[in-house]
Amino acid sequence: MAKRSRKYQEVAELVDRSKAYNAEEAVALLKETAKANFDETVEAAFRLGVDPRKADQQIRGAMVLPHGTGKTQRVLVFAKGEKATEAENAGADYVGEQDLISRINQGWFDFDVVVATPDMMAEVGKLGRVLGPKGLMPNPKTGTVTFEIEKAVNEIKAGKVEYRVDKSANIHVPFGKISFDNDKLVENFEAIADTLAKAKPQASKGIYMRNASVTSTMGPGIRVDVAPYR
User: Where are the coiled-coil regions (predicted)?
Assistant: First the structure.
């Protein structure tokens, strides 16, 4: 096990490992345990009662957090004609076709989210081997393959986050910065929990939302009571 710093060990002692805190308590404790000299990102992790190996128990989607993430996303849009103009007017950072595909193939990745119109996917699909491993490939399930370009760009800029169950049945989602007001962090966390609760697959048996925790970039994990969201 990696050796933890003395500062980490000191703040970790503030957390009762045997307790599942309510959302308000967990967020307050997050503030106490975040001691880094930068504005740490806060993340929620959920353990779900699903089998990710089965297609009918895959959970993937996107949502707009009530108070955003505290990070401005750089949006790249693959579109042409009127849709390219729509993307530019909506505030997309990069808009193009083959020119952007060529830049990406040459190793350029100065963007955070990729959106594409359906008619561009035949060409964009060729970037799967480079965009896929970075989690940047557009996907209809997350609203990033769409003709509603203005809506897609606006939502991303407003704090849209994607979620996807991993092979261990966990979902990790950032939900703000440690500088956010407590109430805003609580509302963001609860919005994610409610969204995941509604995404429960019919094939899932037994307890679906098994546990959850929150943490800051450099802080310890804090268990959250998920009973209110089941």
Answer: none
pTM for the whole structure: 0.85
For 26, other C-beta atoms within 10 Å of its C-beta total: 25
Band (pLDDT 50/70/90 cuts) for residue 8 is confident
pLDDT tens digit string along 125-156? 999 999 999 999 999 999 999 999 999 999 99
Give the rounded percent of residues in the chain with a pLDDT score beyond 70: 98
CATH of 75-157, one of 3.90.1300.10, 3.30.2290.10, 3.40.50.790, 3.40.50.1220: 3.40.50.790
Task: Give CA–CA dist 91/79, Å, rounded.
Answer: 14
pLDDT at 5: 73
Q: Which two tokens stand for residue 193?
A: 């929990």
Kindly give, in sequence order, each residue whose CB lies less than 8 Å from that of residue 45, ignoring residues fewer than 6 positions away. 170, 171, 172, 173, 212, 213, 214, 215, 221
What is the predicted pLDDT for the residue at 3? 63
For the residues of 9-26, what is the DSSP string, one character each?
Answer: HHHHTTS-TT--B-HHHH
Pairing of strands 94-96, 209-216: unpaired
CA distances from 220 to 7, 9, 43, 197, 217 (A): 11, 9, 11, 25, 9
Q: Among residues 66, 25, 63, 20, which one has the least CA distance to residue 226?
A: 20
